Predict the structure.
Amino acid sequence: MIKIKPFIVLGVILFAITLLVPTILVLPSIQEKKDEPNSNVESAEAKEPAIEVAVYRQNKQEVEKLDLEEYVVGVVASEMPAKFEMEALKAQALTARTYIVKRMMNQEKSDLPDGALVGDTIDYQVYNNQDELKKIWENAGYDWKKNMEKIEEAVAATKGQILTYKGDPIDATFFSTSNGYTENSDAIWPNSISYLQSVESPWDVNSPKFNGEVTLTVKEFEKTLGVSLGTGSEVLEDIKYTKGKRIASAKINGKEMSGTDIREKLNLKSTDFTMERKGETVYIATKGYGHGVGMSQYGANGMAANGKTYDEIVKYYYKGVEVTASDDMLTKYTAQK
């Protein structure tokens, strides 16, 4: 048997202690750091406060407050069919976010109750929350979770982006279906806006809303428009057309009316219409659905189906615009509050 000398054993023990002591001293410090909150993460979160949107819910007659991106999800889901192409949904997300950011920046006043920034009807942008969307989709036989995931993906892909013209958020107007052309803004509203000009939109012919028909008795027609029809089959005379191939104005048995006025009074889908009298009945045919200014939703979907990206879509329908980060604008908005 080999005998180990005592001084050698003592040396080994001292060496082991030398190695262990630093580790023992450091372990509590490491554990303390693990238990400490991440101050850098907290400060980063503190620098990015949620942007809140106060929506007046018309039916409930109350104000609902929610995050900006959650609001955009609710608008896109309410304004555009979830079955549409992803790039079309992204384009719709841009219009929805641009609308509300512009409203924030301009601090627009309205007849809404105090504390509300926007309404939830077509007078603003249609908005439904998640519970309401679930009910709507399930009643229509859709998979609401699948729809919601698709809408949320489209909104997330455009997060923080808005449409601007010369640095300012645009009036990102949109409508359902064109008659083959969009409309100049001044054909519908008082002012001509550079980025809201007529463009061709041939994809809309595939929309289920492209053609429309209305049938009225002569008495109903005369009473609604305040006119008296002649005996012939021709109803419209001296027709003047807009750049978007819609009726700017026309005469009905000598009375001149604007196309917009006729459309609104008769509740027509479009200002592209023809009329014919047969006996005691007036037959009206329309093309397109909506005012025609800005982005056509079915046109956007057609472009997306043909491989166009969302930024290509919006730049086609809104001339001269840019896709811009909204961070600086929203920072100024929160600073004003």
Notes: The CA atoms of residues 128 and 266 lie 29 Å apart. Confidence is low (pLDDT under 50) at residues 1-49. Residues 6-35 form the longest helix (30 residues).
